[in-house]
Specification:
By secondary structure, this protein is of the alpha/beta class. It is about 25% helix and about 25% strand.
Amino acid sequence: MTLSIGDLAPDFTLKNQHGEEITLSSFRGSNVVVVFFPFAFSGICTGELGELRDAGLDAEVLAISCDHFFSNRAFADRDGYEFSILSDFWPHGDVARAYGTFNEDAGAANRGTYVIDGDGVVRWKVEQGIGDARSLEDLRTALADIS
């Protein structure tokens, strides 16, 4: 499935790094940045999530990987991520597939970023391969454009 600008974002409920269930639709009324990342503890992912941690974005950040929530807990604790790091571990990659960003060969999500407005509509997206880092400035611009 390919997700397009203007589509209603697929809803999901996943466990965060604390084992709490987080549902996308519970953030209606607020902008949400959904960030798929391939692997906890990898270099590019650590750099990107560190930028998000320090960015002070005016949006809820939900970072999603196919790692188990115990791995995500260790990753979040090590690097001080206070936003939710969600586990798409089982059924493996179902949410990444719903967003069209699951990499079957790697068994992990590609780097998909989706800005979702308060009505649950995808307003901006960028989809990149596992080895391609994202631009924080492009994300900032996208959020400014919907504010």
